[in-house]
Amino acid sequence: MFTCVTCGREFDLPEAVRDRYPGWTPKECLECRNGKQGGGAGVTQPKARPSASKNRDLTVAEVLATFHEGPQTGVFTDGAAEGNPGPGGWGAVLVVDGQVVAQDHGSEPHTTNNRMELKAMIAGLSMLPADTPADVYTDSQLTVNILTQWAAGWKAKGWKKKSPGPIANLELVKEAYELSQARPNAQIRWIKAHSGNRWNEYADALATAYRRDTF
């Protein structure tokens, strides 16, 4: 059992998660980590804006049964990390007319959300033939900005920024950028997270599959 530092309640993790990340000590229970009210004595949390799925750890089957809105063709990518850094995962799915054509997902025991978003984008772009027109969706505005605004300038300067310090996750930035440049008909677009868009929710379920017993 673990004790949540936010609400003070004891909580546990599925055995599969404990086995995958031996020695990892989570600091918050799932409810507090996802922004819900902790419920401890004297704890008052501000009300969060309604979210379609943020506080629900859904499987891919549950996503398909629950959500039906949003684009029905494209590549959808998502990344997640708990603790940031901490255990995390990524997921990508290629959909045509509401049917899954390809999907992939993975996890790492110690990572960050931004790394997982980039890994998801790499996987998603890799699903596309070079000449295929497609919208590639991510709910990470940072990833969109990197690939559509900043990376070209960084590359021209020898992969350096104007500001001091290295480019974070440079090896992943380079790989994602080269894949995007090799697919000139792929449009990288931002999509709002946890807003009921079916295939973004599906990508989120892929990205968080590592922390569930049921895929």
Describe the protein's architecture and organization.
32% of the residues lie in helices and 21% in strands. Strand 4 (86-96) and strand 5 form a beta hairpin. The protein is of the alpha/beta class and 215 residues long. The model is unreliable at 36-50 (pLDDT under 50). The protein is globular and about 50 Å long. It contains seven helices and seven strands; from the N terminus they run E-E-H-H-H-E-E-E-H-E-H-H-E-H. The strands form two sheets. It has a five-stranded mixed β-sheet, sandwiched between helices. It has helices at 15-20, 30-33, 60-66, 113-126, 141-156, 170-181, 198-207, and strands at residues 2-3, 10-11, 74-81, 86-96, 99-111, 134-138, 186-190. Helix 5 packs across helix 6.
- Topology order in helix (H) and strand (E) letters: EEHHHEEEHEHHEH
Largest sheet: 5 strands, mixed
Helix content class: 25-40%
Number of strands: 7
Short key terms for the protein model shown above:
about 220 residues, alpha/beta, 7 helices, globular
In short:
With 215 residues, the protein is α/β, with parallel strands linked by helices. It has helices at residues 15-20, 30-33, 60-66, 113-126, 141-156, 170-181, 198-207; strands at residues 2-3, 10-11, 74-81, 86-96, 99-111, 134-138, 186-190.
